[in-house]
Design brief:
286 residues, alpha/beta, 5-stranded parallel beta sheet
């Protein structure tokens, strides 16, 4: 089947646009625990503080409003919290890395080029961290990344009553592997990925297919999904971290029907408040 955005033609009046990683597929938890956080501990020699490092990393990347941020921005926030406490970084090296992050071209290849122009030991370690965690992510199997409970049932409930799109910043190969392994592709009409464009750009193209903004519902787990929805004036439905199964059950029991019936506007403000309140503030909850 052709899942390309370019060739996709609208079939139904409404469409749900679903983020993949952390929304439908439980991949963020295992990636941050076994890959991102574990590699940070290994590269920076922090095994004696492993529990504290894991807790801090997961808080930044999973449980606070920073969930879903680029990994190179996340590591700046991580340094703010652990430097002088568990590690002691050279301030000039840290300033150089932070300056690179602020330029905004945040990719592994761009960081390698920066090091070639302006080598410093900290950037070299961050490159090692990035390379190693990418290798560890590649070693994960679809069994390590199952769909959230009630997610597949939500797709079954929606199929035929609206078009169904994947709007994700994951790479296309990972999306196809994970959704195929768990027999989810049969519900999907169109797939976008990081190779196709940003979530905001892809939602804009979906609108060009003939949907009204009020007939588009972006489903996600993090603020980049909210931003993409707001950028295009479409609705947003949150999958709440630590409450994913419940979120999908509520979607089936109430909110999908409200969307189909043109009653979702009354839910939007309440759901956005619930989404915001679900995140930690950066301080450990008691």
């Amino acid at each position: 089947m052709d899942y390309s955005l370019k060739n996709f033609k609208k079939r139904c009046d409404k469409v749900i646009c679903i983020d993949s990683d952390g929304t439908m597929i439980d991949a963020m938890n295992v990636k941050h625990d076994r890959c991102h956080g574990a590699t940070f501990i290994d590269v920076f020699g922090l095994k004696d503080h492993a529990d504290e490092i894991h807790e801090t990393w997961d808080s930044i990347n999973l449980y606070e409003k920073t969930r879903g941020i680029n990994r190179f921005i996340a590591i700046v926030e991580m340094f703010k919290r652990v430097n002088g406490k568990y590690i002691d970084l050279n301030e000039d090296d840290l300033a150089a890395y932070t300056a690179w992050v602020e330029k905004g071209n945040l990719s592994h290849d761009a960081l390698v080029k920066e090091y070639e122009k302006n080598p410093n030991p900290l950037i070299k370690e961050i490159i090692e961290w990035s390379e190693t965690l990418l290798k560890r992510i590649a070693e994960l199997t679809p069994d390590d990344k199952p769909p959230y409970e009630n997610g597949k049932e939500a797709l079954e409930y929606a199929k035929g009553r609206c078009d169904i799109a994947i709007i994700s910043s994951s790479n296309m190969a990972a999306i196809m592997e994970e959704w195929k392994a768990h027999d989810l592709l049969k519900y999907v009409d169109v797939i976008t990925s990081q190779e196709v464009g940003t979530k905001g750009e892809c939602l804009s193209v979906m609108l060009e297919k003939g949907y009204k903004p009020t007939d588009v519902l972006m489903i996600g787990d993090a603020y980049p999904d909210v931003d993409a929805a707001n950028e295009n004036g479409v609705y947003y439905y949150p999958i709440l971290t630590r409450h994913e199964a419940e979120s999908w059950k509520d979607f089936i029991d109430k909110y999908f029907d409200d969307f189909i019936d043109g009653k979702y506007e009354k839910d939007q403000k309440k759901l956005l408040k619930k989404f915001e309140d679900n995140f930690d503030t950066g301080k450990k909850k008691k």
